[in-house]
């Protein structure tokens, strides 16, 4: 089956419900209006540091498995940039939140972070290349859309505004455009498309769960 509609647009529909729910989540409402308690934001930043480390490895895996040099190069760059973002953002924000790298290691990845990281690492390693791309794509795309909405609304909180600027800016916009353009070069059979849809929907739902885990400050039971 061939379809005139780009693959990325067909995948987006699989994540639309999660995206709508993310925009309504009290964590993001609070980030935008400045009412989000610092404890919840700190939980998010710590978990996101762990997440980005795994995410970088997932992108490196895709780089190694990519069918073209352009795709090898793009994922290798994005993998390195994910580490740069983790270092820059989290070093500055962690300090302002009164947290140290030792706190980060001591706290470790929580239940939702572990589940999401494991899912991305497994899918990029064991799925087809297109399936791996579909699994990582919501991370790029949803953050750009969320970043745009938050930049438009602005946040009265300087710390939250600094976080928002990372994802709502032109640099991240261009990175996401590259990932979407690569996605649209992939040829997938109907069966592979169905698998890609499931991965996209799964990762988009994990994105909602990631905000929700920070909102609840979700911990392991013991
Ligand atoms: C959980 C999560 N998803 C996506 C991004 C952006 O890639 C991020 N920093 N954290
Ligand atoms: C998707 C993504 N999120 C944080 S970094 C990165 C890739 C390249 O900047």
Named CATH topology: Heme Oxygenase, Chain A
> How many strand units?
0
Query: Residue share in helices?
Result: over 70%
CATH superfamily, by name, is Heme oxygenase-like
For the record, the CATH class is: Mainly Alpha
Number of H/I helices: 10
Counted up, domains total 1
Q: What's the alpha carbon Rg, rounded to whole Å? A: 17 Å
Given as residue ranges, the uncertain stretches (5+ residues, pLDDT < 50) are: none
In this entry the ligands are: 4-amino-5-hydroxymethyl-2-methylpyrimidine, 2-(4-methyl-thiazol-5-yl)-ethanol
Structural class determined from secondary elements: mainly alpha
CATH architecture: Up-down Bundle
Tell me, what's the shape? globular
Largest sheet: none
Please trace the helix and strand order, writing H or E for each element: HHHHHHHHHH
The percentage of residues in β strands lies in under 5%
Give the termini separation.
50 Å
GO biological process, one term: thiamine diphosphate biosynthetic process
GO molecular function, one term: thiaminase activity
Protein name: Aminopyrimidine aminohydrolase
Pfam families: TENA_THI-4 (PF03070)
What secondary-structure arrangement, pairings included, does this model have?
Layout: H1 7-23, H2 26-33, H3 38-65, H4 69-96, H5 101-107, H6 111-126, H7 129-153, H8 158-168, H9 170-183, H10 190-216
Helix pairs in contact: 1-7, 1-10, 3-4, 3-6, 3-7, 3-10, 6-7, 6-10, 7-8, 7-9, 7-10
Bound molecules: 4-amino-5-hydroxymethyl-2-methylpyrimidine and 2-(4-methyl-thiazol-5-yl)-ethanol.
